[in-house]
Specification:
mainly alpha
Length: about 120
């Protein structure tokens, strides 16, 4: 049980830092804006996107958030990573950057599996 909690908190913290904290502090940089433009999305999309990322990251990291809300956050991040992979592949072709969102999808899936294990033992 202790190992499951450690794996859950490490993977969830990675998602929180890379999908919640980092975008919240960097979304107004020129590099972030250029990344959104490069993929063909309007600039306002990036602003809305960072709000949902921050809310989803908070939902995952705060223990008192209801399970159903957490599941929506996990689903939202899964769609985010899948569509990031598709967008990068469509615009730039297959390359290393296409695999980066899939790496985070694996980390997210690990967090979800161990969240489920921890939650079912606490019932």
């Amino acid at each position: 049980m202790k190992t499951a909690k450690i794996i859950f908190w490490v993977t969830t913290s990675i998602i929180f830092l890379f999908e919640g904290v980092m975008p919240a502090f960097t979304f107004q940089t020129e590099m972030a804006k250029e990344g959104i433009r490069h993929l063909g999305y309007p600039e306002y999309f990036g602003n809305a996107f960072v709000v949902f990322k921050a809310l989803g990251a908070l939902a995952l990291i705060i223990p008192i958030i209801p399970r159903r809300i957490k599941e929506w956050a996990y689903a939202g991040f899964a769609f985010d990573f899948i569509f990031a992979c598709i967008s990068l592949w469509a615009v730039d072709g297959f390359g290393g950057q296409v695999l980066f969102p899939l790496l985070f999808l694996v980390i997210l899936a690990t967090s979800y599996v161990f969240h489920d294990k921890i939650s079912s033992t606490n019932l």
